[in-house]
Design a protein that fits this description.
The chain is mainly α. It contains ten helices and three strands. The chain has one domain (2-243). Residues 1-26 and 225-244 have low confidence and may be disordered.
Length: 244
């Protein structure tokens, strides 16, 4: 399944190749706990008519990627069977690599979040990797919800905030649309059934870059370093206008 990923798409997120025959036997190596992660909305709890997802638990966040892959499969079926050419595979591959290499643990070691001796499935809000990946998961996922391809309305899913620094993260379609309108629109371009593979790859590149830049600028502003960066980079306002 993963063997036919477009090479250029893999460059975007540093994904790794395995042959389709090896996918299931090596899934734990490239996609840790993939078979145990949720694969549909009904695998999550429901409160007040909303699906509640805790993206600060590794399998729960990985499940968002799995649902996104399942729901976008029909957009790539004309290029190859069995979702083989869905270059969104690069997103969970990157997240699995982060988990496997310990990049999601608490770097301060003030908690046991992410450590083998503690809560191994915990994703630490103090990890820069985890915070940046949050947006690379939440924005494409919620953009897909907003587009209607997920089969639920835009107000039917809520992401839980971390235990601290809660205001740093948008948690639903409306708040992410408000904070990242341009980036959300770029992810929605991927849901264009008439697009060629080349066009879809172009949309992915634009959405991916926009997510990284806009989320980085957003986090910087949240921790009150905005004035410093505005002084260092006079064109920061142009970046914010374009990417956020």
């Amino acid at each position: 399944m993963l063997s036919l990923l477009a090479p250029s798409a893999c460059v975007l997120v540093g994904c790794m190749f395995v042959s389709s025959a090896e996918v299931f036997s090596l899934s734990d190596q490239y996609l840790p706990l993939w078979n145990e992660t949720p694969g549909q909305f009904s695998d999550y709890s429901v409160e007040n008519g909303k699906y509640i997802i805790d993206p600060w638990v590794y399998p729960k966040r990985m499940g968002m990627y799995k649902i996104l892959l399942n729901k976008t499969a029909n957009y790539f079926e004309k290029f190859a069977p069995d979702n083989e050419q869905n270059f969104l595979w690069g997103l969970p591959l990157q997240h699995g690599w982060q988990y496997k290499t310990g990049r999601l643990v608490d770097p301060t070691r003030m908690t046991d979040c992410g450590y083998e001796s503690g809560d191994r499935l915990c994703i630490s809000v103090d990890s820069w990797w985890a915070d940046m990946n949050y947006f690379l998961c939440a924005l494409p996922f919620l953009a897909a919800v907003d587009s209607g391809i997920m089969g639920i309305s835009s107000d039917q899913v809520l992401l839980l905030p971390p235990s601290k620094d809660q205001t740093k993260f948008c948690l639903n379609v409306s708040s992410c649309q408000s904070s990242f309108p341009s980036t959300m629109r770029k992810w929605n371009h991927l849901q264009s059934p008439s697009s060629s593979f080349k066009d879809l790859l172009k949309y992915l590149w634009e959405a991916h870059v926009s997510t990284w830049i806009s989320s980085y600028l957003y986090l910087i502003r949240q921790i009150n370093f905005g004035l410093i960066y505005t002084f260092l980079f006079p064109n920061i306002s142009l970046l914010i206008k374009y990417y956020i």
